[in-house]
Amino acid sequence: MTDRISDAVIADPKTKYGNAKASTRHFITQRVSGAINIVFVGFLAFIVLRLAGQDRPDMVATIGNAWIGLPLAALLVIVAIHMRNGMRDTLEDYFHGATYRLLMSLNTAFSLLIAVAGLAAILKLVFWG
Hints:
By secondary structure, the chain is an all-alpha fold. The chain has one domain (19-128): Fumarate reductase/succinate dehydrogenase, transmembrane subunit (3 helical TM bundles of succinate and fumarate reductases, Up-down Bundle). The protein contains five helices and no strands. Helix 2 crosses helix 4 and helix 4 (66-94) runs antiparallel to helix 5 (97-128). The protein is elongated, with a radius of gyration of 20 Å. The mean pLDDT is 87. Keywords: Electron transport, Heme, Iron, Membrane, Metal-binding, Transmembrane, Transmembrane helix, Transport, Tricarboxylic acid cycle.
């Protein structure tokens, strides 16, 4: 038996495809995190231009400033959420069943690892120099 949806099911408008609330939440999360990322691009460009040509102590001092480091940490979390959701869309299109669940677990673990490692590095600079 295949996991494919038949034409009869697609033709029936009363048929439900998955969890409507979770899908709506995913859609809104993806759009809002994308919009926030667009806003943060200016902030990120400012940081990159400010740090261009600087030596390590100046970079540590700049990112260690709470007015720079904390928004940078927020940006990292939002980018990790957006990255996870974007990869989820791709995985949903190409994988099903146990393979999808395994790859989605790996996707979540990778996104979480990136967020935690980045947050630890940035917050260390902000709070402990």
